[in-house]
Amino acid sequence: MNTSNPYEAPKADVAMPVADEPQTELVASAQKLIIYAILAYFAAAVVRMLLGPVGLLVGVTAVLMGLVGAYRLCTGLGYPMAVRVLLMVLMCVPLVSLIVLLVLNGKATRRLRDAGYRVGLLGASR
């Protein structure tokens, strides 16, 4: 006779493992910084139209957040130093910097989803 219960729930481990690499955590925190920089770029444009010179301060803050976030993300993704320097130079060009941030955000999203993170509008969560 068969001793197994046909109504018993399966015992398979279906949970996707989350990678606990320090580089993945660096990518997650850098991606949040990049997302905030992208949002600050758009906020700077609106504030500059409404309040004038105050928008410039928001724009400079967005550029600094973008520079730091891009460098940290390139470090987490393992890019060579030459690529990091090239991206930092490209971050100084106004519209190109926004495109660079969007491309880096896409690469970070792909890496984080492969590592088992859920990625939403404002960054990754476990």
Automatic annotation (TrEMBL):
Keywords: Membrane, Transmembrane, Transmembrane helix. It comes from the Bacteria. The chain crosses the membrane at residues 26-47, 54-73, 85-104. This is Uncharacterized protein. It comes from Rhodanobacter ginsengisoli.
